[in-house]
Structure prediction request, 268 residues.
Amino acid sequence: MEIAGHPIGATTFAVIAGPCSVVTADQTVRVAQRVNEAGATMFRGGAYKPRSNPRSFQGLGDRGLALLAEAKAQTGLPIVTELLDVRDLELVLAVADILQVGSRNMHNAPLLKALGQTDCPVLLKRGLAATIEETIFAADYVRGEGNQRVVLCERGIRTFESSYRFTLDLTAVPILQERSGLPVFVDPSHAPGRRDLVTRLSKTAAAIGADGLIVEVDEHPDQAPCDGPQQLRSEDFASYLREVYRVAGAEGRRVLRATEPESASRSG
Ligand code: PEP
Ligand code: MN
Prediction:
C-alpha cells in the first residue's frame, strides 16, 4: 500500500515518531529534525487530544496544526495526526498525510465513514476494549466508503492487569494481518506508560512481524502536558531506532527512512 511515497506493509518497516502533543514551534520542529536525522519514516504529533479527563490538556487544536505544517516545511516528513471530530476534517486534511483515529473513536461510525470518503490514508487504532473482529469491522466502515488505505494499530487493551496502563496484545498483530489483509502497526508507548520498556516492546513488535511502529518521543518529556513518562527522549532516539531497525532487518524487512543518513547530516 503506497502512503506518502512509501510502500507500507509486507516487506517494509516504517517508524512514525514524534511527541504526544505539539506545544511550541521550537519543540515541534526540533523533534521533527531529530527523528528525521535518525531515520524515521514519518512525524507524529497531536493537535487535538482525546483525553479521558475533560479538565486535562486538550491540545492546541488549529494552532497545533500550524506547528505540524511548519515541521513538515522544515523537514519534508509526512505528518500523522489525529482527527478527533468530523467537523475538523477539512482543517486536518490540509496538513495530514495520514489521519489517525484514536482508540476512543474506533467505534465512531460517522467519523469512520467520513474518512472513507476521503483519499487520505487512515491509521486506525484499536479500541481499548475492542475485539479483533470489532477492529476489522471499524476498518470496513472506512473501506466500505471507498478509501482502501487503512493501517491498523495495536496500542494496548484493557485487561484485569493494573500494573501498567494497558496490555499490549502482540498476538493480535499476525491475526489482524491475516484476517484484514491490512498493514498492522504497533504503538509501544501507551501500553507500558514507561519509557524504559519502549525499546523492548518495539523490538518485540518488529520480531512478531508488525509492519511499523508509532512511537512517542519529545525534546523534554518531563515538561510535556500529557504522556511525559512514556515518551522517549529525543537525544536517545537515534540509538533506539538503530536497535529497532536491526530487528526489523533481521526479519527481512526493508526499513523506510524518509531521509538517507548522509543527506540528513548534511542538512543538519
Ligand atoms: C496518541 O496517539 O497520542 C493517543 C491518544 O493514542 P490512543 O488513541 O491510542 O490512546
Ligand atoms: Mn499520547
User: Anything to note?
Assistant: The two ends are 31 Å apart (CA to CA). Residues 20, 46, 50, 102-104, 125, 155, 187, 190 surround phosphoenolpyruvate (ligand 1) (CB under 6 Å).
